[in-house]
Structures are given as C-alpha cells and as structure tokens.
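Hi W.,

Here's what went into the run:
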Amino acid sequence: MKSDNDKIHKAVALLVEQMQSGVLSHCNQNGERYPSGDELAAIVDLCYAILFPGFFGDSTSVNTDTLRYHIGVNVEKLHVKLVEQLIAGMCFDADDKKDPETRTADAREMASDFIESLPDIRDVVCTDVEAIFRGDPAAKNYGEIILAYPGLKAIVNYRIAHKLLEVGANPLMPRMITEMAHSVTGIDIHPGATIGRYFAIDHGTGVVIGETTIIGENVKLYQGVTLGARSFPSDENNVIIKGILRHPIIEDNVVIYAGATILGRITIGHDSVIGGNTWITESVPARSKVTL
Amino acid sequence: MKSDNDKIHKAVALLVEQMQSGVLSHCNQNGERYPSGDELAAIVDLCYAILFPGFFGDSTSVNTDTLRYHIGVNVEKLHVKLVEQLIAGMCFDADDKKDPETRTADAREMASDFIESLPDIRDVVCTDVEAIFRGDPAAKNYGEIILAYPGLKAIVNYRIAHKLLEVGANPLMPRMITEMAHSVTGIDIHPGATIGRYFAIDHGTGVVIGETTIIGENVKLYQGVTLGARSFPSDENNVIIKGILRHPIIEDNVVIYAGATILGRITIGHDSVIGGNTWITESVPARSKVTL
Amino acid sequence: MKSDNDKIHKAVALLVEQMQSGVLSHCNQNGERYPSGDELAAIVDLCYAILFPGFFGDSTSVNTDTLRYHIGVNVEKLHVKLVEQLIAGMCFDADDKKDPETRTADAREMASDFIESLPDIRDVVCTDVEAIFRGDPAAKNYGEIILAYPGLKAIVNYRIAHKLLEVGANPLMPRMITEMAHSVTGIDIHPGATIGRYFAIDHGTGVVIGETTIIGENVKLYQGVTLGARSFPSDENNVIIKGILRHPIIEDNVVIYAGATILGRITIGHDSVIGGNTWITESVPARSKVTL
Amino acid sequence: MKSDNDKIHKAVALLVEQMQSGVLSHCNQNGERYPSGDELAAIVDLCYAILFPGFFGDSTSVNTDTLRYHIGVNVEKLHVKLVEQLIAGMCFDADDKKDPETRTADAREMASDFIESLPDIRDVVCTDVEAIFRGDPAAKNYGEIILAYPGLKAIVNYRIAHKLLEVGANPLMPRMITEMAHSVTGIDIHPGATIGRYFAIDHGTGVVIGETTIIGENVKLYQGVTLGARSFPSDENNVIIKGILRHPIIEDNVVIYAGATILGRITIGHDSVIGGNTWITESVPARSKVTL
Amino acid sequence: MKSDNDKIHKAVALLVEQMQSGVLSHCNQNGERYPSGDELAAIVDLCYAILFPGFFGDSTSVNTDTLRYHIGVNVEKLHVKLVEQLIAGMCFDADDKKDPETRTADAREMASDFIESLPDIRDVVCTDVEAIFRGDPAAKNYGEIILAYPGLKAIVNYRIAHKLLEVGANPLMPRMITEMAHSVTGIDIHPGATIGRYFAIDHGTGVVIGETTIIGENVKLYQGVTLGARSFPSDENNVIIKGILRHPIIEDNVVIYAGATILGRITIGHDSVIGGNTWITESVPARSKVTL
Amino acid sequence: MKSDNDKIHKAVALLVEQMQSGVLSHCNQNGERYPSGDELAAIVDLCYAILFPGFFGDSTSVNTDTLRYHIGVNVEKLHVKLVEQLIAGMCFDADDKKDPETRTADAREMASDFIESLPDIRDVVCTDVEAIFRGDPAAKNYGEIILAYPGLKAIVNYRIAHKLLEVGANPLMPRMITEMAHSVTGIDIHPGATIGRYFAIDHGTGVVIGETTIIGENVKLYQGVTLGARSFPSDENNVIIKGILRHPIIEDNVVIYAGATILGRITIGHDSVIGGNTWITESVPARSKVTL
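Here's what came out:
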C-alpha cells in the first residue's frame, strides 16, 4: 500500500506541474467561470417551457387562467440565467477586455434582445412542427411531434442557438446548445447555419449541417444527410483559413433523401429532389431529380 | 435596465396572447396531464429491474432468497405507474370521450395485461441476448451484452413499447419509449414494427426500422441499415395518407450489413445476405446474396 | 380489480420461477455486486476533472494556487472508486477464483497503475485537442473543443478505457466506459483498439472502430466511417472464434472521409486519403488516394 | 448465514400477520393516501414564499416588476397542493363517507377559502413581526426576525394551521403543520388555540399552548411557558372526555415570563405581568403582577 | 488578494499539523468508516416503514395484497444497512481487535437478532400509541399520534436504540438514534434506560431520561420532566466513575407533571402522582401525591 | 370552479398590492440577495469538516496522507462561500452604502481573517470536548461527543458565529448560524455572548444565553438554564434601548444545574455552584453554593 500512495502522490505532483507550466491551455483563469453545461441545459429547458407550455416545464397545473404567471416567471428566470452565461461566455473569450460593468450591461441587453425574439422563434417553430406533421404518415398529431420527434428537438435547439449568435453571444454557448441536441438525436446542426421556415428532418441520426450552410423554406432532410465542406484551404503557413463560405446553399422546397452527401459552396436549386446515398459536389439547377 | 424590462414584459404579453388565441395547438387542457417523460423513464427502469434482476434496479442485495420480494414490489410499482401514464395517454387523445371511471378501469386492465405478458417478454429477450452473443466475436459473456450493448437496449425498449401498443395504449407512450432508446443508441425502431425472436443489431447507430416493417426470426442488422418507406401516396387533397403498409418484410435468417437501405413494401426472402451500402427497392428471393 | 391482482400475482410467480430455474443467466450471485454504471460515470467524471481542471468538475474556484488541493482530492476519490469497481469487475468474471484479500490487493495495484499513467494520458489527449483544432475551420479555440466536441469526448473515454484494459481490468468496465461515450456521440470505439497520438474525429455520428483496429499517429476520421471486420470464422462446431485479428491497420497521416467502410485485417498505407462512401476490403499502399 | 435468513423470513411472516389480523389500526386502506409530511412541508414553504417574498422561496430574482408573476405561480401551486392534501385528510377520517367528486369539490372550495384569507394572514403576521421587534433589544431589524427568530416561525405556522382548521380541513393536517414548527423551535402551539394580533414569543423552547387556549392582543410569552390543562375529566366508563374547554384565557397586553405554568380554564386579566417560574391555577384580575 | 491567499495557506498548514500531531483524537483511522448519520437515519426510516406500513416509507401503493412484498424488501434492506453500520460501530471502538471476517459474522448475527425482535417491538409500540391516545383529550385517533406526536417519535427511536444495545451494538449507534429524536422533539432519552409498556410523554420538550433509569408500565411524563443523576462520584484521581446506577426507578402507573425534577437512584412508588415543578431527591412510597 | 379562480386572482392582486405599497418592509431590493439559509448551512458543514476531519464532510477516504488535500479544498470552498454570504449580509444592511468593489474587498478580508482563526477555534473546541467528556459519566469517548452530543453542536456553532461577528460580519449571518443549532438542540446562545474555554452544556434543551453574557473558563450548564435580562429600559419615546449590558457574568469554574434562572447584569463568582430551578437576580460571591 505504501507504493500505491507513492504512485498517487507522484501522479498528483506531475499533474499539478503540467497545469502550472503554462504550456497547456486547460487552466482556468482566476475567479472567472466558464459557461456551464448544466446552466445552458436549464436555459434550454426554460425556452422549451416558454415555447411549449403544457408540454414542458413545471406544467402540472398550467391552464389558460394561470398561463401568464408561468410565462412571466419562466421568462424572468431565463433572463437571469442568460445574463450569467453570457457574461461567462465573454470571460471565455481571451480577447474580450471589457470591464465588469460593461460586460453586465452588454449581457443584459443581449438577454433582453433574445427574449424579445421569443414570439418570433415560436412562430417559426410552429411551421417546423407543421412541416414534420404533413410529411410523416406515422405522425399521429402535433403533440407526438413535440414530445417524441428528435428532428424537432434538433431544430428547436438550433433556432435558439442561432438567435443567441445573432444577439452577440460568444460562439461557445450556442455551440454547446446545438451539441446538446446532437448528443441525443445524432443530428449535428452548426448554430451558424441559416435555415428557413417549415424545416423538417426525419429520423435524423447522422445528419450534419455545416457552419455556412444556407437552407431555404420548406426543405426536408432524411437521416444521414451531410451538408458539408469539400476542402479547407490553408494559408501560406499551412494553417487552415477559418471563416470561409464552404457549405451548400439549399433553395426552397428541396427534399434530400437518406445518406445523401452534398459538399462545398454549391447550390441545390429550388424544388429539387436529391436521392438517397448520392454524392454531390456540383450545383444542381431548380427542379432537378438526382438519383444514385 | 428600464428598456430590458419593457422588452421582457412585451415578450410575455405576446407569448401569452399566442397561446390563448387558440390557433396554436400547444396549449394544455385544464387539469389533465400529458404523459410524462420522467414517468415513462421510470416505467422502463422498472421493466429492466424486473427482466434483469441483479443487473438493473436497486439490486445491491438481491439474492435468490429475497428475489420474490423485489419482483413483487417492482411489479406493483410498475402497475401503479402504468395506470397513471395510460390514463394520461387517453387524455392526450382528443377523440377519447370516456368518463374518468371508465378510463381508470380500462387503464387498470391494460396495465395488468402488460404485466401478465412480462414472462413472455423475458423469454423473447433471452433469445435476443443469445443471438447477439453468438454473432459477435467481441462479446465476452451475456452480462456484457445486458450492461453495455446498445443494440439490446434498443430491442428491449422496442419489445416493451410494442406490447404496450398491443394492450391498447395511446401510441404516444410507446413512441416515447422507443425514442428514449433512439436518443442513446442512434437506433430508431418504430413501436408498430413486428419483430421475431433472436433479433440482433450490432453497433446500431443510424438504424431505422419503420412502422409497418415485419421481421422474422434470427435476423441480424448492422449499423446504418434503413428499413424504410419508398414514397408516401397522398389523397386527392394532397394530404399524405396515413397507415398504409409501406415498409419491408424481412424473412427468417437474414443478415443485413452496414449502411444497406431497403425501401418499400418488398420482401427479403429467408436466409438472404444483404451486403453493405446496398440500395434495394425490389423484392429479393430466399437465399439471395446481394452486394454492392 | 380482483382479476388485476390475479394477473399480477401470477406474473410475479412466473418471473420468480424463471429466475430461480437456473436456466437463465441473469441472476445475481449472492452478495457480490456487478460494476455500477453510475459509479463508472463518476469515475469518468473524476478523470475529466483531473485532466481538464477548470473545465470539468467542481471547478468554480480552481486557480493556480489551489489546483493541487483539487487534483489531490480528485485523484484520491478516483482511487477509492476504481478499487471498488475493479473488484466488482473481478466478481463479474465467473472464472475468477481469487480470495477477497487478493482481489483487493490486485485492485489497489491496478488502480495505482492507472493513476500513475494519468499524466501520460493527459499528454496524449493534448495532442488530440490540437489535432482537432488544426483540422476544423469552425473551431474557435481549445476550450470549445474540450467543452463541445463529441469527437474529443469519444477519444478521451476510449483512452481511459484502453488504459484500464492495459492495467488488467475486467473487460466489461472499459466497455461500459466507451459505450457511455457512444451513447452521447454516436461514435463506437472498442476499448481494445490501439490508437496513436493526434487523433481526430469530426462530427462522428456513426463511426465504428473495432476491437483489433490499429491506428497510427495523426489520423483523422469523419462521420460514418466504419473500421470493421469482414467475416467471422467459426470453429468446427459452428461457433464464432473469438479474439481473431480482424480489423484494419491505419498507418500515420491518413484521412478517411465520411461514410467510408474499411473491412478486414487490411492496411491503409501512411499518408493516404480515403474518399467518402468508399467500400474498401483490400490493403492500400502508402500515399494512395481512393475515391468513389 | 442460513439462520440469518431464517430469522429474517420468520420476522417478515410475523410482521405481515400482525398487519393483516385487523386488530391493529396501522394498516393503510387500499389505494387512498394519507396526508404527506413532505407535501405539507411544501405547502408551508409556499405560504412563506407568498407571505415573505424576497425572504423565502425561489427569490433570487424577485423584484417589484416581476413580483406578480411569482405570487401568481406560487398561489396556483399552493392551490393544487392544498386540494390534494385536503382530500388526503378526508380519506384519513374513517367517518367521512363522501364520494370522490364531492370530496374534490369540497377540497377545492376549502383551498380557495384559505387562499382568499392569505392577505389577512399577512396583515396579522406583520403585527407579530412588529411586536417581536419592539420587545427585543437584540433584534436589529425586521429581516432578522423573519429569517432567524424561532418565535415567529412558530406563530406563522400556527396562523396557517389555524386558518386551515377554520376552512374545514381534517384536524390532522393543521396538527402536522404546527408540529413541524414544534420540532425546530421547541414551541408547541395547538392549531385549535385562538391567538390575537401582536403576539410575541421570545426564545420559546418549551412553550406549550393548549387546544382551547384563548390569547388576546399584544401578549408576550418567554421560553418554557405552559398554558395547559389542569385535569382531564373522564366519563362513567373511565374514558377521558374529549373537547372540553380546559386551557387558560389570556387577555390583552399580558406578559408571561420564562417557565411560568398556567393551568386550567382560568383567566389572566388584561395588562397583567406573570413572573418567571410561577405556578398559577386560579384566575388573576386585570393589571395583576404575580411573582414567585 | 495575495495576503488572503497567504492567510489561507497558513491556516491549511496549521490545521493539517494539528491533525497529524496525534495529540488530538479527531483523526480518522485509515480506511475504516465511522457510523454514518445519514445511514442511521435511513435505518430508522426503514424501521418506521416496517412498524407502521402505510404511514411511513414508500407507501403510496401498499395494500393488504402487496404488504408482504414491501415488508420483505424493507426488512432485507434494513439487514444490509444494519450490518454495515454495526461493523462501522466496531471499527469505532478502539479496543475492538476482531478480524474483518469475525466482525462481519458478528454484525450479521446482531442484525438478524434485531430483525427477529421487530414483531415484539411493534407489539410494545402499539401499547405506547394506545397509552398516548387514552391520556390526551386532544388526540383524535391513532393515526394522528403516529404522524404528529413528538412523544411517540422519541419513544419509538428509544425502543429501536435500546434493542440495538441489547443485541450488542457499539453504544455510539444507539446514542445517535436517540439523539436524532432529541433534536426534533426536545426529548432526551438515553438508549440505556429501561422502559416498560404503555409509556406516554405529552408535549415533551425538555424531558431528560438518564442512562440507568428504570421505568415500569403505564407511566406518563409531561414536558420538562428530568429523571437525572444527583452527583457523580470520582475516583482517587478525581476522574468521574462511569457506569454507576445513578438515575431513578419509576414504578408502574406513575404520572409525573411538567417540570418535575427527580434526581438520584431513588424509587417513585407505583401509582404515585408527582406534581409539576417539584424537586425530588428522596424515594417516595407507592400511591404518593407530591405537589409543589 | 369559476369562483375558485376568482378568489385566487383576487388574493394575488391583494398580495401584490400589499407588497408594492411600500408600507411593509418585506420586499426585496432589486437584484441583491439576502443571506441564504442553505448557503450558511453549507458554510457550517464545511467548518465541521475542517475542524473534525474524518467525522464530518466527505470523509470516506480521509487518511493522514491525503488529509492536506481535503483541508485545502474545504478551506478554499469555505472562503468562496463566506465571501458571497458576507456580501449578502452587507446588502441586507440598509445603512451600508459601499460600492460593489469595496464590498467585495472587505468581504474577502473578513473571510480570510475568519479562516486564519480556524486553528484557534479548533484549539478551543478541543477544550470543550474534553470538558464534556470529563463531566459526563455516560460519555464513552470523544467520538461519541463529537457525533452525538447536542451541547457540543451548540457550542461549536456559537464559536463559529461569534468569530464571524468579530471579523465584522453583518449580525444576521451569525444569528442564523446559532439559530440553526438552536433549532436542533433547543440551546439558544446569542452569537454576541463571550464564552471561555472548557465550556460544557449537558442535555441542554431550553438553555438560553443572552447577547451580553460573559462566561469564564471551565463553566458547565445543565438543561433549562437561563442567563437572561431582567428588564429592558426604554427611552423617552417608550422605545426599548438596544445594546445595553443586561445579561450575567459567570466567572471561572461555575456549575449551574438544570432549570436555574439568572437574570440581569449580575456576577456569579468563580467556583460557585448554582442549584437546579433557582431564581437569581443578585450577584453571588466566589465559591457560593446556591440551592432552592
């Protein structure tokens, strides 16, 4: 047992040394907190409770009389938590040099802007629910979609995350929110993507939608569809150039079947149908039918 | 900060108005409760504790002497929880016009019927465990399969959900139970599918098995296999017709390798082998070998 | 209600009888405990808190002054929990005939060996973080990768699990640890695989890496890549032979794009690029480019 | 170990037999639930959150703008929980023969009556806070009294419990609520007592106030004061007669010092001072000073 | 902030030094665990669930049909937890030199002996409930006494603790169990006291019953009664002699009113009545009436 | 049901109006938080874990090797929590006009001062443990006193609270800490009292020690002892004057038996013995023996 303790103490000493050497970047700054996965999950839960009252949240006694109390409390809690996490996100950004008061003021404004947009988010999400319902013969009613469809979960988390990006949140926070959905649905939508109304994903496991993708209205994807990048240009130092427009544009009314792979900044013209397992790296005109 | 509060109060007012307009369907009915994800998870946990005592549940002291007490308590708790959720499922169905007492009586009977079938479910699940063990060189013993194989989890949740459908549960509840497995395994089996004994799925991520699929005995699937629909006929109003038989029939002793896609109401004849990444939309006779 | 109770009592009796018949293997041995999923999750959480202090664990007040206290406490807790679960793993192995004291002594040594290797694990994981950062134009900084990239989670859990296998843990425990990552990332890496430094997986859903796979340094995989077995030879009794080398060898500096399937004990030569959706069952020389 | 199991199984058999013999009254009726200590504690917590917003409850973000949302949600939750527990109280009363619907209707009305009286309860409690503040040189401000004075806690729980008795709750429920305060303060006030405004108890451990006590306005008690019964008359069968008026009447503006014992249906006249450790079993005129 | 850290590190160093100096006894032995307050609380909860099924424990669905399952599971859990805590108690005793296997065997036997006595404990507790009911005009029914009377709680915890002492538990464990009741009732009964059937305590705050007290059948105490020691003889080294019989003997059918103090190894003869606030240090013959 | 909702909405409106009228002081200020009972409880728990490692806290694996890690982590957590609650205490004080940065700096210094004094607190507490052990024939060892003696708990909480007062904490926080002990022990020690080394309280229920009490070394109290004020002088406006020295001085080596009441700024001379149930309002010379 002596040698057990020796090994342990030696490991502790080495691990502490690694951290303090400064070569590695995993060491926290003093006193500042990183965005918290648990808090972001609570933020997403509050959004769901606000967007779908009666389905999510502490809904056992929600009725039309008391709805406004619940919405009010949930919106207020959401504001408090958003402000905290938005500040945490700023602390995470090494280039952010704001003083604490400016950070708080900025975070409060971002949080309010996000909350102001919740009615609009709700409007769009309703179109997504309807699109899923219209396109799936197995869907019995809207409630089933809200409670049991992974595709909707991935879309709602994306819409929340995308809006946070728009109001100015540090990108880590939206990314963690879409990753939460990815981990339970297998659908990986980057928060930076732009996606129109009436968006539907069926089954969804394996779907990947990249950062600079643009998707129009009334588009439907099946499982395993990749909207990805084709290549990553590097600069003269052989470092990948970040931020280039590198993912596809999908126009309105397109259906893309399971396993299709669409790569690069190409355009799939409106009203096209892309068959399953296809591999597409060139633009396709409107009303095309592409099959294997 | 004043304007923050203005934005927030305005958002609350708009959100409440949206809900109360009645156009949207997301508003809870007064006093009735929807099926609860947490309660369904507890129901599934109880089923696992009953089917695999010593592996799941409060098993720290289960032994052959005290097993009957544990099974007894767990079966009783399962009955209580099932009755509650079965009633919640009925409330969810807008067409259900039963009075409360009939609902309770019906739910009690469904719950008892489900419990009565647990020994049979256990019998079938044992064949699934054995099928996985026989077919995977990496499987060291039955316990590893029970504790660590996502394929088994997806199958067990499906078998529970399918039986609930058979005893008459509102379809939302079984759907939520298979979706629980989908979210942690990436395997999406519709509770309406019919699946025979000795069923094995290896790795499993991306597997999709549609609502009207029929699978015989001793079938094995690998990751990424889709047993899906080919097209969704619409009625004269351009509304998708629900309930049509649209997924494949897989006969006994078939193996389907990774990434194969089988679409439409076609039949894969018994003792066939379907190669990886194949795309099949026409029936295949018994003892076929299909490769890319 | 009488008949409800009848059905329930009958089911209890049948279930108890099934368990006690001894034909089925799901019955716990008296007094001994199986490895616990919750405890293994706690072990993985402690490893993350030790490897990435400030990112995971009870990190609200970690700073360079107090880091050593936190590392110390976490390493000690890890040792205690490892010893318990390593013993549980031995009990799980029907062939293990050690007496309790030997089991404890062996478990203590394995746990110390594992802890002794943590600094090395941390070194390798740092190369993985860097490899992901260098290869993904969407990655803003190391922190984002640590907090939000499923690929890293799958790799870290694999590295923990693989080391446990090396120090002699019963294989069930490492398997459960990689399966935890599989369930939230869709990436299925067998703990028995051998994987070099600077390993990156992008998106990752659907990736499968089999038990006897060998991967060199600086390899990158995209979603849906399978490194699998081609066939499972059986012995004269038609029982699959376990333990055969049956998965690919991927040499240094290989990139494998989404959906590629590589099967059998073949070698992908160094500096090769394997295109998306390819199906490869034969070895490929160094510096190859394989496309669909 | 065999004999261990024998003893255990024998004990189980005996205990079950005792319960089922019907001689003992500790056996639950089928399907009906007794009032729950946890739920009553939650009810009391909600009352505190409503009466003292910002001091108790989920108060981290209560401000004057959002107060109404919080009060609204808490009042609604209170109503739901009260209805459940009021019904449980009725089930507890063996003489209650109401059908379920009448029970629910009655409980809903009682709960609403209780909630209607909350503003009045708040008014009275404010006088209690002020009385404590005026009489204690150690009290720094109202907040300290609300957060840290056991006397106030005992009084508030009593006022809640007494009102529940008034609206018709089964006596068990109010009794459990005052007993909650008794257990943490050592102050035992029967919910049936009648107590006027501006009531103060200092320190309080050991105070006992009996069921039929009447206390006027502006009365102050110190620790160890008993307002008790002197004797319990029995009927011809030697059974104690329940419900007799047997505790003292304390008129307005009386101070009773530590350890005084006042027994029987006697009257302490207004503006009297009762000294510490006195033993009083006869009425005392107004403006008396009684000392040891 | 630098000086903050200096103060903190200095304090840590001093505290560690104090512990390791060995002068102080507060340092844990390596690897062995002290009895756990939480576990003892769980043990007491299980005893309540077994003694009063339907009142305590997970009772939502207990009925006469399923009672035996619940009793069985609870008794089994109780046995497991008792064994652990009995072993922890032995470790706490510095003089205990047993090897681990003997400790476990002894603990298992003690636990079984305790469980064997549960039906008898239940018999006696029933007499206590009845005694309280007969003597309190405010008591509405047995259930109220079981759920809301602190006197009963103190007595039941005492009876459990006393039996544990009888089966041979280390005295710390019973002491912690009676102290749990003391902390919520203000009634301090030493587990070593001997107390007969039909024992009642009313209100109870401030009651003290010493280690060597003997109480007959059908005795009733009111709040603030002390059954204490008069003096503590010391040995030649001026060290108090432990274990001397120093508390009163109360014979059958005695009533002792509030605040009475009875000190020393004296006897209160049967059928006596001791008045409130009396101070008694000499024996009293049978059928006495002592008043202030 | 309509009238139910009417009553509820009316009650909400009235309650909101009461709060917003400003007459009542129970309304929280915007954004600032009051001291939290839960956080103070966590602070006390951390102090116990630091003062008594192995007895309290997460002690399952504390040994002499790893003690320093545990002390280090606990001291650091304590510092963080203390700073937060000390700031909350300042916000609670309406007269405190400091800006946020000064508050934080002051709180950090107070917290460090408190932590710096922990080794001294531990020294004194050790004398208290020893005093209890020497004076109680029922005490088997130090561990029993630490784990099960309410007297010690009350003293330790007092010593923590008193030191917080000394370092400058808002008085609410220390008061809440002694009240925590009061609620579970029935012993009410004001944090402002001054108490010397080797202090013992036996049983303790009902003990009251007032704000300006001074107690020397080696003093022992029994249950029900009051060290209180005799009268509260008022000013010309009939308002009680706060802060006057009004409680007794107890010199070294005094024993005070159960139920004694000592009132006013009088002195009990050293080496005196005060008998049970005595009532003392005048000073007593050294070496006195006072009996009833």
